[in-house]
Amino acid sequence: MRVLVTGYGGFLGSAICRQLIQQGHQVRGLARSEYPDMQKLGVQTIQADIADAAACDTACRGCDVIVHTAAKAGVWGRWEDYYRTNTQATIQLLDSAVRSQVHALVYTSSPSVTFAGEHQSGVDESAPYPSKWLCHYPHTKALAEQAVTAAAKNDKLHTCSLRPHLIWGAGDPHLIPRVIQRARSGRLRRVGSGENLIDVVHVENAARAHVLAVQRLAAGDSQLNGQSLFITDAKPIACWQWIALILQTAGLPVPTRSISYQAAYRLGAVLESVFRLARSSQEPPMTRFVAAQLALDHYFNIEKARRLLGYQPEGDMKQKLERCADWLQQLAKQ
Asked: Which positions are annotated as active-site residues?
């Protein structure tokens, strides 16, 4: 099978490519940068912006399935930038896929597309999209997810959306380095009690879910077509316990200072206003979205993924953290 992976050089995208290649599939990658390590593995690469329509047409041509992981992540920035990369580029890719007669598309969404600033305690895919958004990333991802779902209705393209939550593992360029950097700089605080439960997903589990979706959609699975699925390790953990495990494995002390959720949320609102008025591209040290994510439950029911994908998370969290120890300790020294 010929599979196009957008954002193929990213943390999740590269893991998906490796698993696809191990299974004997031909992989083509589309990204703005070059990734020589992926080329050595056999990925046929195209260097271009996902928002470039001509590049999308070229990348889709001759492919059977697309895995669309490319996105603009983060909690701060201009609406135009998020909308262009996350929403418009996805719609454009769907159009290119249809023109190129690609059979299926697997979209990497996010559980935050259902986050309305309240506890998400074991919620499933019946949770609605919110009417108000705390930042542009989940809003533009939700709009893209809706386009992916709508595309499944015209019988020209089979689609599904996967919502992996807090992807982690050695080489993670976002979540874990951010925690360690804040701890080292003295800017990390526990928000609220820290006992709120969260879900995480190891990158290999998240990648395997995508590969399973590729296989199911390529085989014409009508039950999966048009569906959205939460993907986690299915082992909720207290937020501060998770952060403490990361820091302890990295050889760093766990901060003892804390701030109430209400105070952190108000601080985030003030800082957002100040940074917006200043037209600053720098992310504020606290935002409403970050405060809510640190203080509220966000764990999910993955029975639908088990049923439709045959997905079963593998591995023990503490063992996987121990295997990351050298990498974490190197991060802590940087």
From this structure: 137
H or E element, residue 43: none
Specify burial of residue 131 (Cβ count, 10 A radius: 0-12, 13-18, 19+). exposed
Q: Say if CB 210 and CB 18 are below 8 A apart.
A: no
Question: What integer pLDDT is reported at residue 281 of this predicted model?
Answer: 85
**Ramachandran region, residue 291 (left: φ > 0; alpha: ψ -120 to 50; beta: rest):** alpha
Q: Amino acid identity of 170?
A: A
Domain ranges of the chain: 2-169+200-234+299-314
Per-residue pLDDT tens digits for 80-114: 999 999 999 999 999 999 999 999 999 999 999 99
CA dist 84 and 56 (Å) reads 14
From residue 51, give the alpha-carbon distance in Å to each of 55, 157, 196, 257: 8, 20, 38, 43
Q: Is 18 left (phi over 0), alpha (psi -120 to 50) or beta?
A: alpha
Q: What is the pTM of this model?
A: 0.95
Which of 2.120.10.30, 3.40.50.720, 1.10.3210.10, 3.30.420.40 would CATH assign to domain 2-169+200-234+299-314? 3.40.50.720
SS3 content of the chain, % helix, strand, coil (to 5): 45, 15, 35
CA distance 72 to 90: 12
- Cα distance between residue 306 and residue 3, in whole Å: 23
Residues in the chain: 334
Give alpha helix (H) positions in 61-121.
Answer: 79-82, 89-99
